[in-house]
Amino acid sequence: xxxxxxxxxxxxxxxxxxxxxxxxxxxxxxxxxxxxxxxxxxxxxxxxxxxxxxxxxxxxxxxxxxxxxxxxxxxxxx
Length: 78
Ligand SMILES: [Zn+2]
Ligand SMILES: [Zn+2]
Description:
The protein has 78 residues and is an alpha+beta fold. It has a single domain (15-77), classed as Double Stranded RNA Binding Domain (2-Layer Sandwich). The chain is 41% helix and 12% strand. It contains two helices and three strands. A three-stranded antiparallel beta sheet has the order 2-1-3. The longest helix is centred in the C-terminal third of the chain and has 24 residues, at 54-77. Residues 18, 20-21, 24, 37-38, 40-41 line the site of one zinc ion. Keywords: Metal-binding, Zinc, Zinc-finger. This is Transcription intermediary factor 1-alpha.
C-alpha cells in the first residue's frame, strides 16, 4: 500500500547545494538574486538582499501555485 500521506510531502527533500560553493549545503534562497545560497554567500554577497530559508521560500511559491490552481478547479466543479 502506498499511503496518500506521501502526496503531502514536498518533492524537494533532497539536499540542495550552493551555486557558488558546490561543496556547501545551500539552506537559504536569495529572492533578490533568485538563487540558492549558503551562509558564506550571505556574508560575502547577499548581506543586504532579500533572502529566506529554503523550505519557507518554496512553501511560499507552492502557495502561489495552489492559489493559481484554485479557480480552475472551481470551474471544473461547476
Ligand atoms: Zn555559497
Ligand atoms: Zn542575493
